[in-house]
Amino acid sequence: MSNQTCLIALGGNIPTAEGGPAHTLKEGLKSLARREIEVKDVSRFYATPCFPKGAGPDYVNAAALLMSDHTPEMLMQVLHEVEAEFGRARTQRWGQRTLDLDLLAVDAEVWPDEKTHAKWRALPMEEQMQNAPDTLILPHPRLQDRAFVLVPLADIAPDWRHPILDLSVREMLACLSQQDVAEVVPL
C-alpha cells in the first residue's frame, strides 16, 4: 500500500499520571511517530464541551494529518494500541477517556461501501449512543456533524473534501450552528 494521507481526531478529558489531557494528546502524537507513522501537521488544541453534554469533564480536542503505509485496519489497530498505552479503557461508548484517537479519513476512500456508510451516517442519535459498527467506516460517519472535529480539522485540512457528501471541511463547518462552533475554544 502506498503512502496515504490520513486524518485523525484526538481528544481526552481525564488526566493521566503524566499530566492533563493536552499533555496526553502531545505524548500520543509522539507515540504515533515512534510507530512509523509520520505526523505531518497538527491543529491547535481546543477546549470543548463534553459530548454528549453532561457525560463528564470537558475535553481537549485536536486533529492531525498523518502519512502512513498501513492499511486502514492496521492504522486503526495502531491507534487503539496508542490509546491503551495511555490508559484508555473501552468500557462505555462515548464515556470519559484519557486518550481518544479516531480515524476520520484515509485519502478519499469509502469503507466498506457507500450503502453501509449511508446507514451509519443516518443513524438516529439514540441508536448512535447504543450501537457501534462492527467494521471500519470511512470517512467517519459523523465527522460532518461535530464542531469539536471540524474546527480543529479546518486548521490543517480546510480543503479536504468528503468523498460522499462532496463538501470541504470548510463547507461542512459552515453548515453547523454558530453556537456549536463557538463552543470550540482554542487553548
Automatic annotation (TrEMBL):
Keywords: ATP-binding, Folate biosynthesis, Kinase, Nucleotide-binding, Transferase. This is 2-amino-4-hydroxy-6-hydroxymethyldihydropteridine pyrophosphokinase. SUPFAM superfamilies: 6-hydroxymethyl-7,8-dihydropterin pyrophosphokinase, HPPK (SSF55083). It comes from Roseovarius rhodophyticola. It comes from the Bacteria. Belongs to the HPPK family. Its EC number is 2.7.6.3. Residues 8-158 form the 7,8-dihydro-6-hydroxymethylpterin-pyrophosphokinase domain.
